């Protein structure tokens, strides 16, 4: 028997299987989709078996497979096909596509060993023994109840009795695997759905055996989560499984808690903050068919469920659903659609602020649109006030307008809580010399350093470089370094001066680096231990605190100023999302948005909760400028540690593309990327815009092939990029 094995050959772009002989002792265990170890050029590598044949069709002398890594099938037939789709559509290697679908412990990669967690149990070996003392009898009884007992628990009764019983051979110790996470929780009563919610559930279920994509455009608090849970419950009755994607699960602990209340331990959770061991366990629960519901961040879309009834993508506009930091650069929505065709099940997208692409598809009936214009019990959406910071600056006020301060005082006087958003972490946005104007930049990246006061360091938010702040300018030698711009750290300091008797908790990248820190912050804020939750965009998503009646946005301009065609859309989404955190309970909510661009349309439409107004205006701009959803985009980046190499290659690539693509395709660049240098790598880019380009894939494939063995230059391709 011959096996075709796919191995990872990093740094080489070899993407094909190699044939190996299956030794006689492994023939019975050999299956497509399992992991094996094979000899490869003086090394031993792990790989996936992608095919099996009875006879060798070459005259080479083949080597033998060394061993099987695990007997379980890691890549079932669906995942095998899906990997090919990903590889074809993103032009990434097949092996990288398979690796992206799997938790670390199951990737074919040497040296990754994640052990199963074993626990010691006690079982009865000899029965019918008399002459036991009280404690010993108690232990025996406890074991008899379930046939076994955790040794830990028996030890709680009496450690010495356990020892004696083991020594006498009455008990025996055995080891069994236990899962690291347990989601048991009692099932609570659910709300009866409103008739509107029920209608939505019925609409979706009417097409439960089709690959329809639904877009639920529902204002914040319109009861979407309840709708998802009802759909899932109905499908459970048919024996069907569900995937629920949420933006970043550590921020949506509350959603998980609601699912646990409804479905107890019938769920597995997958997200980046779990340990490798926890991910491994959760993944195997799914693969073994022990749970029917998977909740998770982007990569949960690959959950190896076998009978999917619905795929739900909550907050579908979230940019983290696109993997864009490494290959394959896939979007979870594309994977969801592929799997929905495979399983013939619907996809349900939900958002208060859908992406322009999704809403445009719904407008063209590619997706089935469902609108929910009101909150569950017709609570009003919060009223939004826009404060012009140009005027405030003239009055020499700091980062807090009079209106925001008064609104905060008002909320505190009623014992209500406040959420403040500033989408920039650190103390200041940059440091600069007042004498010569020099700004401190990262030595590895083309980016200003951010001052972090708590550690008195200047840090690069791209590569992590850090250095202590010196008061003396490295250029002119004057003691004139000062900090400019504002980050969350500085706002926290100002809050402590403005409201000395109020308690502030800050939630940003810096305060949430340890495991469980998000959860702790959210829990203690929801228990009322703090008056103010201050943070970056992390505070905008998914949170539900009934006692929050005021949301303040310190500077709405941070996202408006990023050089990206989506900056208005991102700003509009962020403002609507964060505004949706206010007034979710009985009390009416307020929002104060501070901005230097009070007349910007993204801000004006957010003020009126006017999604369709924003959609219409933004669409007309996209049409004029030729951006999505009117045109497709592809970004090609030329990366090199040598400036000349990157520049010359980008010119050559541009010429090649011009020659091979149709004349209707628009080419922007080559130009330098928005951050020109990251971690000492120079970045040039070409942006392609097209409505239809039949030569795109073959041309880009040839391009990759051409540069494959060039060690100085890397070509990076991102189809439908989120950021350019
Ligand atoms: P969304 O996901 O659209 O933001 P949620 O599902 O979180 O909305 O609902 C908003 C709030 O209303 C939540 O606190 C939820 O528990 C409550 N809620 C939703 N549906 C109902 C219902 N049918 N009856 C009572 N309360 C509900
Ligand atoms: Zn850097």
Description:
- This protein has 724 residues and is α/β, with parallel strands linked by helices.
- It has six domains: 2-106, PriA, 3(prime) DNA-binding domain (GIY-YIG endonuclease, 3-Layer(aba) Sandwich); 118-177; 195-376, 3-Layer(aba) Sandwich (Rossmann fold), CATH 3.40.50.300; 379-425 and 487-624, P-loop containing nucleotide triphosphate hydrolases (Rossmann fold, 3-Layer(aba) Sandwich); 438-480; 632-719, Ribosomal protein S10 (Alpha-Beta Plaits), CATH 3.30.70.
- Helices cover 31% and strands 23% of the residues.
- It contains 21 helices and 30 strands.
- The strands form seven sheets. The protein has a seven-stranded parallel beta sheet, sandwiched between helices. A six-stranded parallel beta sheet has the order 16-26-25-17-24-23, sandwiched between helices.
- Helix 9 (276-287) links the parallel strand 11 (267-270) and strand 12.
- The longest helix has 18 residues, at 643-660.
What is the straight-line distance between the termini?
Answer: 49 Å
Q: Note poorly predicted spans.
A: none
| CATH fold name of the largest domain | Rossmann fold
CATH architecture of the largest domain: 3-Layer(aba) Sandwich
Distinct compounds present: adenosine-5'-diphosphate, zinc ion
Characterize the largest beta sheet: strand count, sense, and whether it forms a barrel.
7 strands, parallel
Any idea what the shape is? globular
Beta-strand segment tally: 30
- How many separate structural domains? 6
Biggest β-sheet: strands ordered side by side in the sheet: 11-12-10-13-14-9-15
Strand content: 15-25%
């Amino acid at each position: 028997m011959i096996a075709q094995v796919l191995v990872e050959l990093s740094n080489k772009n070899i993407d094909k299987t190699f044939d190996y002989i299956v030794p006689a002792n492994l023939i019975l265990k050999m299956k497509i989709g399992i992991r094996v170890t094979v000899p490869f050029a003086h090394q031993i590598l792990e790989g996936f078996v992608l095919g099996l044949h009875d006879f060798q069709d070459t005259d080479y002398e083949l080597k033998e497979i060394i061993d099987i890594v695990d007997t379980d099938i890691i890549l079932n037939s669906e995942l095998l096909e899906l990997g090919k789709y990903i590889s074809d559509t993103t032009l990434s290697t097949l092996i990288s596509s398979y690796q992206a679908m799997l938790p670390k412990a199951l990737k074919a990669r040497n040296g990754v060993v994640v052990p199963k967690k074993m626990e010691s149990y006690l079982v009865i070996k000899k029965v019918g023994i008399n002459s036991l003392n009280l404690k010993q009898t108690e232990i025996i009884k406890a074991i008899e109840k379930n046939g076994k007992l955790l040794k830990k628990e028996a030890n709680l009764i009496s450690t010495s009795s356990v020892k004696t019983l083991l020594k006498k051979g009455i008990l025996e110790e055995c080891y069994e695997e236990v899962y690291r996470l347990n989601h048991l929780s009692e099932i609570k009563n659910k709300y009866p759905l409103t008739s509107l919610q029920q209608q939505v559930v019925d609409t979706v279920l009417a097409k439960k055996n089709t690959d329809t994509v639904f877009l639920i455009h529902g204002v914040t608090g319109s009861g979407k989560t309840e709708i998802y849970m009802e759909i899932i419950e109905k499908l459970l009755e048919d024996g069907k499984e569900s995937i629920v994607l949420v933006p970043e699960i550590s921020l949506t602990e509350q959603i998980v808690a609601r699912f646990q209340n409804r479905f107890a331990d019938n769920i597995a959770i997958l997200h980046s903050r779990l340990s490798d061991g926890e991910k491994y366990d959760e993944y195997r629960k799914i693969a073994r068919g022990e749970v029917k519901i998977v909740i998770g961040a982007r990569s949960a879309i690959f959950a190896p469920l076998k009978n999917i009834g619905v795929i739900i993508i909550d907050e579908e506009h979230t940019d983290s659903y696109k993997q864009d930091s490494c290959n394959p650069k896939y979007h979870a929505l594309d994977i969801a659609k592929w799997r929905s065709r495979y399983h013939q099940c619907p996809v349900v997208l939900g958002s208060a602020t859908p992406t322009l692409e999704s809403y445009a598809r719904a407008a063209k009936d590619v997706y089935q649109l469902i609108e929910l214009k009101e909150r569950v019990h017709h609570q009003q959406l919060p009223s939004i006030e826009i404060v012009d910071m140009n005027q405030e600056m003239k009055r020499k006020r700091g980062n807090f307008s009079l209106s925001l301060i008064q609104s905060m005082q008002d909320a505190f006087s009623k014992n209500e809580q406040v959420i403040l958003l500033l989408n920039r972490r650190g103390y200041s946005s940059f440091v600069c010399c007042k004498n010569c104007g020099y700004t401190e930049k990262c030595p590895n990246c083309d980016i200003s350093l951010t001052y972090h006061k708590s550690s008195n360091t200047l840090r690069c938010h791209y590569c992590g470089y850090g250095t202590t702040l010196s008061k003396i300018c490295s250029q002119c030698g004057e003691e004139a370094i000062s900090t400019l711009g504002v980050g969350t750290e500085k706002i926290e300091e100002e809050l402590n001066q403005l409201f000395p008797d109020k308690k502030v908790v800050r939630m940003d990248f810096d305060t949430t680096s340890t495991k469980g820190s998000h959860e702790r912050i959210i829990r203690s804020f929801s228990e009322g231990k703090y008056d103010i939750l201050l943070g970056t965009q992390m505070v905008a998503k998914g949170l539900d605190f009934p006692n929050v009646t005021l949301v303040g946005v310190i500077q709405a301009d941070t996202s408006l100023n990023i050089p990206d065609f989506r900056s208005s859309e991102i700003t509009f989404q962020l403002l609507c999302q964060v505004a949706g955190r206010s007034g979710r309970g009985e009390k009416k909510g307020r929002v104060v948005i501070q901005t230097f661009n009070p007349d910007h349309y993204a801000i004006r439409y957010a003020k009126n909760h006017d999604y369709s107004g924003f959609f219409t205006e933004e669409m007309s701009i996209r049409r004029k400028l030729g951006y999505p959803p009117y045109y497709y985009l592809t970004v090609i980046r030329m990366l090199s540690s040598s400036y000349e190499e990157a520049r010359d290659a980008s010119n050559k690539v541009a010429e090649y593309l011009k020659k091979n693509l149709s004349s209707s395709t628009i080419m922007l660049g080559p130009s330098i990327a928005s951050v020109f240098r990251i971690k000492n790598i120079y970045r040039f880019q070409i942006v392609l815009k097209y409505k239809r380009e039949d030569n795109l894939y073959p041309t880009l494939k040839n391009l990759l092939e051409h540069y494959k063995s060039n060690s100085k230059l890397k070509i990076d391709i991102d189809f439908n990029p989120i950021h350019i």
